[in-house]
Design goal:
Elements lengths: L4 H31 L2 E8 L11 E4 L2 E11 L7 E8 L8 E7 L7 E7 L19 H26 L2 H23 L1 H57 L2 H13 L1
Length: 261
């Protein structure tokens, strides 16, 4: 079945649009890659880099700044692996910065490179320069395990030394001597000390009772004196009020006094 002229025109337009779209996407991603220039560095690891593959992320304080490009054995040191990676242009890679292997404990076992450290006053390293390798997580764990093993061994040696026959005999003798000393002290001096403490406590109790009694009696005397003064004051007040109301009472009081005489 032959196609018509209109169908051929529509097919040509569709092909042109498809090719243009593909070229547009290609130019877009190419331009974006050219705009985001990357700087290449490399690091030499003297340990297994199993789990680190091309395309693995390069991070700085958890931020993605690049990716691993390739890995190869160092020709001058067969125990070392050279890892080439790139970071976004403008990343301040410094001489004191370290490249650390991170990860490898997940299900996939993949690792990444984590950049850490660096002095901001230092100049940024030029392209293709080596970034020194840091300590990986596995090396840190291994070091801690070694330190723990050394301390555990020292502890076990001390325990064996303490539990030796000679030390056990010396320890038993020291405990026996301590028991004898405390027994003698308990049988003589402790009982005497307790009696003296009891006597002193009774003396303090008697002194406290006497002091309470004296204070109680003094309070009674003071209360009586205050009552007398209060009554006298009330009488004086009543008398003054009566005199103020009737001054002739003074004359009467004098006449009565004269008659009595």
């Amino acid at each position: 079945m032959e196609t018509t002229k209109g169908e051929r025109i529509r097919l040509g337009i569709f092909m042109i649009m498809t090719v243009s779209l593909i070229l547009g996407f290609g130019i877009f991603f190419l331009g974006k890659r050219l705009a985001n220039e990357n700087v290449i560095y490399h690091t030499r690891f003297s340990e297994s880099v199993d789990g680190l593959v091309p395309g693995a992320k390069v991070k700085w304080n958890g931020v993605d700044v690049g990716k691993v490009l390739e890995l190869h054995i160092d020709e001058h040191d067969l125990l070392a692996v050279v890892v080439t990676f790139e970071v976004v242009k403008g990343t301040p890679v410094k001489a004191s910065m370290r490249a650390n292997l991170v990860g490898g404990f997940s299900i996939t076992g993949l690792k990444t490179i984590e950049l850490s450290g660096g002095n901001p006053d230092e100049p940024t390293l030029p392209e293709n320069h080596e970034v020194l390798a840091g300590t990986s997580q596995i090396q840190q764990i291994t070091s801690r395990v070694e330190v723990f093993s050394v301390k555990l061994e020292a502890l076990m040696n001390n325990m064996l030394l303490i539990t030796g026959e000679n030390n056990q005999a010396n320890l038993a003798g020291s405990l026996q001597d301590l028991h004898s000393i405390t027994s003698q002290f308990r049988n003589s001096d402790i009982e005497k000390t307790f009696i003296e403490i009891q006597n002193a406590s009774k003396a303090l109790e008697n002194l406290s009772n006497r002091a309470d009694l004296m204070i109680y009696k003094s309070q009674e005397d003071i209360s009586t004196s205050l009552r007398n003064i209060n009554e006298m004051t009330e009488n004086m007040y009543d008398f003054s009020q009566r005199i103020k109301a009737d001054p002739s009472l003074l004359i009467r009081s004098e006449e009565k006094s004269g008659r009595i005489k």
